[in-house]
Amino acid sequence: MRTQQTRSRPMKPPRRFGARTVATLLGIRFAYRFGSRLAPGRTVAHAARVFQTPLPSSRERAMHALTTMTARREAVDVDGEQIATYVWGDPTTQPYILLAHGWSSLGLRWETWAAQLLAKGWAAVAFDQPAHGHSGGDLCTLPDFVRTVTAIGRHYGDAEGVIAHSLGGAAVALSLEDGWTAKRVVLIAPAADPEAATSRFARFVRLAQHLRPSLHDTLAARTGVQIGDLHIRNHVPNRTQPALIVHDFFDRDVPVEEGELYTSLWPGSILLKTRRLGHRRIVDDECVQAAALAFLSGVDFGGGGEAAA
User: Fold this and answer.
1) SS3 for 5?
2) Of 18-22, 62-66, 78-82, 255-259, which gets the smallest average pLDDT?
3) In whole angstroms, what separates CA 211 from the centre of its chain?
4) 88 three-class SS
5) E strands of the chain, at which residues?
6) Is residue 65 part of a domain?
7) Domain count, the chain
8) pLDDT at 8 over 90
9) pLDDT at residue 128 tops 60
C-alpha cells in the first residue's frame, strides 16, 4: 500500500464560540442531563430538533456571500421546497462538476474552486441544502441531503465529476446511480457512519446514550429512512467510479477512520491523508485543491491504496 503526505501547516487555534452560543449549549446540557432521567420523551423530541437544525451561520454567511459571488443564481423545486443553486459556466453545453457542501455550510463556500474549474473548461454547480443558505426549510438531516443531491444531479444531468465535503460526501456516496451519475468522485472528510454521528452528538449535548435508539426512531419518523440503512457499507461497495478520499489525521469532527472506511469499501479508491488541516480548512487548502483537480482531470494516482499529500 502506497503512502504520500501533504505538507504540514501550523495548527490554528480552535474556533471560539460566542458568549450566547456557549450559554445556550450550557443550558441544553443542563436540561438534557436531568431531562434524560425525568422527561425522556420530551428530551428526545427536543434533541431531535436540535440535531436537525443547522447553525444560523449558514444563512448569515449566505447573505454576506451574495455581495461578492460570481455565480448565476437559480432555483430547483425539490418536493415543494425551493433549493438555491449557483452555476458557473453553462452545464448544458460544458461538462460540469457538482459541488456538495457539508453540515451548516453553504453552496457558495465553493466559490474559491469555481475559477479553477472554469479554467479547466468545466462548468460548476453548487447548491444549498434544505434549511441551509438561501434554500427553504427548517430541518435537515442525512436523508434530506441525499434526496437533494439526487434531485440536483437529475436536474442538471450526469456530471463530469463531483466534489463533496463532510455530510455532503455521505450524501453523494448514497445518491450516486439513483437517476444520475458522475464519472469521477472526490470526497473530502466524508462522514460514513450516522450512528457514530448521533453518539458524538449525544456526548456533546449530554443526552443519555440509552436514549439514542429513541432519537433514531424520531428521526426516522420524519424522514422515512432507518438510520442503519444510511451507513456507507450498504452503498459504497457497489460504486464503480474512480474515487479520491481526502481526510485529515487530526479531524475532530469526522474521525479519519471514517475516510479509511470509504477506501476499504469503495473498489479501487484512493485515500489521501493530510496533517493539521482539520475538518474545514482542508477544503480550501491549495494542495488538496490541486490534487482534486488533477484527479478529476484523469491523472493516474497509481491505483487504489493509501496516499498522503
Assistant:
1) coil
2) 18-22
3) 26
4) strand
5) 72-78, 81-88, 96-100, 123-127, 159-165, 182-188, 243-248, 270-274, 305-308
6) yes
7) 1
8) no
9) yes
What radius of gyration do the chain's Cα atoms show?
19
Is residue 36 assigned to a domain?
no
Read off the pLDDT of each residue in 214-232 and give the average, rounded to a whole number.
Answer: 98
pLDDT, tens digit, for every residue of 25-43? 888 999 999 999 999 999 9
127/129 Cα distance (integer angstroms): 6
Task: Look at residues 226, 236, 305, 297 and name the one whose alpha carbon lies nearest to residue 273.
Answer: 305
C-alpha 170/C-alpha 142 separation (Å) is 8
Banded model confidence at residue 1, pLDDT cuts 50, 70, 90: very low
User: Where in the sequence is the domain holding 89, given as residue range(s)?
Assistant: 57-194+231-308
Q: What's 118's domain CATH number?
A: 3.40.50.1820
* Average pLDDT rounded to a whole number, residues 287-306: 85
Cα–Cα dist 190/247, whole Å? 8
Residue 226 covered by a domain: no
DSSP code at position 84 = E
Q: What's residue 22's pLDDT?
A: 75
Which DSSP helix (H) or strand (E) runs through 305? strand 305-308
Cα→Cα distances 297→101, 117, 163, 288, Å: 21, 10, 13, 14
pTM of the model: 0.91
Q: Which three cell numbers stand for residue 196?
A: 457514530
Residue type, 75: A
Cβ neighbours around 57 below 10 Å, total: 12
Structure-model confidence comparison of residues 5 and 59, the more confident one = 59
Q: How far is CA 262 from CA 170, 199, 243, 283, in A?
A: 10, 20, 9, 18
Residue 1 CA to residue 6 CA, distance in Å, equals 17
What CA–CA distance (Å, rounded) separates 304 from 211? 40
Tell me what pLDDT residue 18 has: 55
Average pLDDT, the chain: 92
Query: Is 146 inside a domain boundary?
Result: yes
Q: How many CA atoms lie within 13 A of 120 on its CB side?
A: 23
